[in-house]
Amino acid sequence: MLRTLLFLLVMANIASAIGVVYARHEHRQLFVAFKRLERQRDELNIDFGRLQLEQATWAEANRIDQVARNKLGMVFPSADETVVVRP
């Protein structure tokens, strides 16, 4: 009876040790994945900031005016070409 109890305690101890090793291994894998995702998030935030800056640059009024004049040949209408429509 004492041997059986001792055997069961040793087996429980071994099972517990294997569980601890498995949990540590799983924790390390999840931590590495977490850090990789954190790095990816930071890179995406940097790209997003660059894109916002680029969008702001392209949307500036003087840039739009310059493109309209140079590439599209647009000009402001003169006073005699302006028509006011009243309801």
Concise synopsis of the structure shown:
This protein is mainly α. The protein has helices at 2-58, 61-70.
Q: Secondary-structure blueprint of this entry?
A:
Blueprint lengths: L1 H57 L2 H10 L17
InterPro entries: Cell_div_FtsL (IPR011922)
Function: Essential cell division protein. May link together the upstream cell division proteins, which are predominantly cytoplasmic, with the downstream cell division proteins, which are predominantly periplasmic.
Main location: membrane
Order of helices and strands: HH
**Helical segment tally?**
2
Q: Mean of the pLDDT scores?
A: 93
Question: What best-fitting shape do the alpha-carbon axes yield?
Answer: rod-shaped
Low-confidence stretches: none
Characterize the largest beta sheet: strand count, sense, and whether it forms a barrel. none
Return Rg in Å.
35 Å
Tally of domains: 1
Q: DSSP strand (E) fraction?
A: under 5%
Q: Count of DSSP E strands?
A: 0
- Terminal Cα span: 105 Å
Measured as a percent range, the helix fraction is: over 70%
Structural class computed from helices and strand pairing = mainly alpha
